Amino acid sequence: MSINKEQDFGTPASAASQTVALEIDGFTVTAPVGTSIMRAAASIGIDIPKLCATDSIEPFGSCRLCVVQIEGGRGMPASCTTPVAEGLKVCTQNPRLADVRRGIMELYISDHPLDCLTCSANGDCELQDMAGAVGLREVRYNPVETHLQAVKDESNPYFSFDPSKCIVCSRCVRACEETQGTFALTLDGRGFDSKVSPSQNQAFMDSECVSCGACVQACPTATLMEKSVIDHGQPEHAIVTTCAYCGVGCSFRAEMKGEQVIRMVPHKDGKANHGHSCVKGRFAFGYATHKDRITKPMIRASIKDAWQEVSWEEAINHAASEFNRIQAKYGKDSIGGITSSRCTNEETYLVQKLIRAGFGNNNVDTCARVCHSPTGYGLKQTFGESSGTQDFDSVMQSDVIMVIGANPTDGHPVFGSMMKKRLRQGAKLIVIDPREIDLVSNSPHIKADFHLKLRPSTNVAVINALAHVVITENLADDAFALERCDVASFEKWKTFIAQDYHSPENSEAITGVPAADIRAAARLYATANNGAIYYGLGVTEHSQGSTMVIGIANLAMATGNLGRDGVGVNPLRGQNNVQGSCDMGSFPHEYPGYRHVSDSDTRNLFQQAWQAELSPEPGLRIPNMFDAAMDKTFLGLYVEGEDIAQSDPDTQHVLAALRAMECVVVQDIFLNETAKFAHVFLPGASFLEKNGTFTNAERRISPVRKVMTPLAGYQDWEVTQMLSNAMGYPMNYSHPSEIMAEIASLTPSFQGVSYEKIDELGSIQWPCNEQTPSGTPIMHRETFMRDNGKGLFMLTEFVPTAERTNQKFPLILTTGRILSQYNVGAQTRRTANNAWHSEDRLEIHPHDAEDRGLKTGDWAGIKSRAGETVLRALISERVQPGVVYTTFHFPESGANVITTDNSDWATNCPEYKVTAVQVSKVSQPSEWQQEYHKFSENQLELLEQGMANG
Amino acid sequence: MNKIDNLIKMANDISNFFNADPDKELAADGVAKHIMRGWEPRMRHDIINHYQQGGSGLSDLAKMAIAKLSEQAKV
Ligand code: SF4
Ligand code: SF4
Ligand code: SF4
Ligand code: FES
Asked: Each residue of A33-44: pLDDT tens digit?
């Protein structure tokens, strides 16, 4: 293995299909029109010296190291900014060019510290490389003034900025603008005075910088450098793997020194991220080796007892015998399990197999229950497949982008950057969100054409009003709907939606959105060449989550915005493997590939393959498991990689249910909140310690590779296999590739997927089968995936949520997430990302704050019908009067103590986005928080006692 | 919320969606099918029981649907 650096072609590829032929140093080369001479040369192995060019950003032509001579041409053009042309004869090396280049390098080096031997970039510095390439042997200048004394900026926890080493090539500035779209860096001054700095000469941490690291990656010198490289030196080998944070699923090269990750570098060939990443994936991997990792199996009889470290065998046998005992006493259906979107496809598949075939019931559910289950339901009903329709790249062809209840720049940052790029190119933007997300007006050079700032919980009224305009103003694409969709359902829907009560004017009182804005937005979307919809949890986490997903699908079908590049309906998935965990049969009513358990053909197929009798009845969903636990009919739970005690609504009910169970087995890398209620703890492996695959929000199956030995000795799939064997249901896989082979053999949409093919192609978007052997970037091109191939329109009546404001609870609380932290925060809270966000805060509008005498930083008591918690207040005009907002990354925040048990009608996805609350100024954390703090401290003591005895 | 209240609420919520269909027979079929395909047998059993005891709290459409489930369960 070697570090095998990715080739830098100097300038981005041209998308043109027309090519030209030219000669470079006597070799003939063909290149697409628009390609730079530099890139064309690199494509045949001729590296022209360069400093200010790199292929992730547009060329700038400032260093002039890349000059060439062209036969018959004048002067020495820069090859990075000069495009190829038919018949050119280019010379890249001759004595004149060499002279010019040496002169340039001399100037650079005269103002550069000569500490190469001790420099952190030693071995990975383009300035060094270029000095070598041009044959620099002496520096004749002795400048009076230099930058050698410039002061370092160490404010960012992950990288340092040493301006004394800066060659002012502006690669960082362009990376921040073009790749990330944040525009945090500026290049000021001229000549000697020119310098790069964040914002207005601020420290990085005080600037708009979001720490994506694109500038660090683009910097050719040690000026911007990862602190991990400064601390540990250059990595020596690299392994390609996939980020374990969000649903973008960025591809990374884990750059290693032995078994230590030195840095994560986004992989240029990664088809989801094209060499970009965010602060989490690139920098926040330290949790994987955090001291809180638990690496020994543990058991205890009751949650009041200290943990006891035991051998793997003892822990597994104990869990198995407890589960067997509970089933013998309370019946087959008295146990179940929960899979996780943080685990690989193979691990998830195995857990549901253990439950269906080993436990003999269908009591399996997954955390997607609380996020995107309405997506699964709504898109399956209308389009016939529970997934988004496009690949990420499709957004670059969109003319109108509608973002509903999502915050891509925070939740899905790398895709957010791509979307911002398209918006800067001129695509129009419609944002439907109660809160002013960054895209609305807080992103440089982007302004939403419409921000429909609706009241929380009125999504369906808004989508109906938009559709009403489309139908009554004859903006529908009838030809598409009649040819591609179920005609009867289209006609019925048209009659329904054309009714006057759906009009923007009539729904304004409900939604709070001016009718004129709805009309204009509807016209904009419906008349776009390519209109695309992106949505997130602001759509799904409502009592009408599924209705809204269906409403979105109706609107896209009615306007013909499906089945080609640039359009589509795209759920932005929260966790890295939400799509995958759903695909793998994590829901209690569906086998892998979303086939119902009552379908006897499918069931027979699985019965034969698994050699077990399978139940034709749907199992319990997570909230129903809790109800059944309180009823004493559900008493054993196997939880892999999930933290239901923190992430599920109505915490008090969840905790009571967990306490009521007789055996809770938690498999995780940390003693998470759920594990504090567990009887058996099986230490899990981080994504760096296992092999498998993740499937991102665009259905892309990407490889996860083991780069270090599992700290606890086993990968998670091995642990599930041991548990299954101990329970008497044999499993004998020797590698996850065998599990994938089984998945492929049983699931039509995965039929063509194999580890060999993933290796060959890098990643695969399902469906992948005989008709689409290399996968399917855009779905529903010719027909929809429903049995008859036709899209189905469904009626979407607006039904107000049962959660109402009144005098006692006059405000609506809605929840969301931010860039630097990830979900329940178990990973990111254990990294330096806390520098950006160290506690959850309650955003409240200045008017509401004033009424309550609240100032930023005060303790704000938040009380709902379900419970009470306390957070620090943050006065903000991003929220509208009457609405308050918080994130839920810290367990002590108890955000879910106040969320209620209202849920989506179709899938029971909780209504996280709408809770009626009262807010008041208080002087200390709530009673619940204080009690929880005590309980939590006590559990940590019980853990320490166990470790001390172990 | 206790368990049966929760099931009643779930059944009513499902009915609220299908109620958009002007054809109430079709709407009730939609509700019944949804419950049949999504609810664990213990839950179906409990709601049918509740319906057979008068079904208080259930919306009209929910009652129509559970009547259908109750018939199916007998077969
Ligand atoms: S880390 Fe990212 S956001 Fe910050 S300055 Fe560099 S490119 Fe810009
Ligand atoms: S910091 Fe690095 S990338 Fe930016 S101008 Fe200086 S040398 Fe170039
Ligand atoms: S968290 Fe998401 S956007 Fe950030 S690097 Fe990971 S996959 Fe990419
Ligand atoms: S690399 Fe072409 S001018 Fe710098």
From this structure: 999 999 999 999
Q: Do A589 and B38 touch (CB under 8 A)?
A: yes
pLDDT at A642: 84
Assigned domain for A946 exists = no
**What is the DSSP annotation of A470-490?**
HHHTT-S-HHHHHHHB-HHHH
| Whether residues A928 and A829 fall in one domain | yes
Looking up residue A181, the CATH number of its domain turns out to be 3.30.70.20
Give me ligand 4 centre to Cα A218, in Å: 14
Q: What is the per-residue burial (b if ≥16 Cβ within 10 Å, else e) of A189-208?
A: eeeeeeebbbeeeeebeebb
Measure CB to CB from residue B39 to each of A363, A618, A796 and give the nearest one: A618
Same domain, A361 and A489: no
Q: Could you list the residue range(s) of the whole structural domain that residue B37 is in?
A: 3-74
The CATH number given to whatever domain includes residue A113 is 3.10.20.740
- Whole-number Å distance, alpha carbon A114 to ligand 2 midpoint, is 17
Q: Does residue A507 sit in the same domain as residue A413?
A: yes
Helices (H), A747-835: 755-761
**Closest chain B residue to A497 measured between Cα atoms?**
B20
Same domain, A562 and A582: no
Q: Report pLDDT digits (tens) over A256-308.
A: 999 999 999 999 999 999 999 999 999 988 888 888 889 999 999 999 999 99
Do the beta carbons of residue A197 and residue A186 sit within 8 Å?
A: yes
Total of domains in chain A: 5
Residue A152 covered by a domain? no
- Name which residue sits closest to atom 7 of ligand 1, judged by CA: A176
Total structural domains within chain B:
1
B3–A543: do the CB atoms touch at under 8 Å?
Answer: no
pLDDT of residue A837: 65
Residue A768 included in any domain? no
Q: Are residues A285 and A305 in the same domain?
A: no
**Structural domain boundaries, residue A176:** 159-289
For the domain that residue A492 is a member of, what is the CATH number?
A: 3.40.228.10
8 Å CB contact of B6 and A901: yes
Pick from B1, B16, B42: which is nearest to A905 by CB? B16
Shortest Cα–Cα distance, B54 to chain A (Å): 23
| CA A99/CA A107 separation, integer angstroms | 13
Ligand 3, atom 2, residue with closest C-alpha: A246
Share of chain B above pLDDT 90, in %: 76
pLDDT in tens, A789-801: 999 999 999 998 8
What would the mean pLDDT of B51-58 be, rounded to a whole number?
93
User: Do A382 and A497 reside in the same domain of the chain?
Assistant: yes
Ligand 3 within 6 A of A277 CB? yes
**Residue A289: what pLDDT?**
84
Question: Cα-atom radius of gyration of chain A, to the nearest Å?
Answer: 29
Q: Are residues A605 and A655 in the same domain?
A: yes
The verdict on the CB of residue A64 being under 6 Å from ligand 4 is yes
Residues A130 and A222 in one domain: no
Residues in chain A where the model's pLDDT stays below 50: 1
Query: What SS3 class is residue A225?
Result: strand
Q: Is A29 exposed, middle or buried (0-12, 13-18, 19+ CB in 10 A)?
A: buried
Distance (Å, whole) CA A621 – CA A907: 9
Q: What's the pLDDT score for residue A895?
A: 73
Q: Contacts from A838-841 at CB under 8 Å and sequence distance 24+?
A: A839/A871, A839/A872, A839/A890, A839/A893, A840/A871, A840/A886, A840/A887, A840/A888, A840/A889, A840/A890, A840/A893, A840/A895, A841/A871, A841/A872, A841/A873, A841/A874, A841/A886, A841/A887
- The alpha carbon of residue B9 is apart from the nearest alpha carbon of chain A, in Å, by 9
pTM, two decimals, is 0.92
- Within a domain: A70: yes
Chain A residues lying within 8 Å of B9, measured CB to CB: 802
Q: What is the CATH number of the domain that holds A843?
A: 2.40.40.20
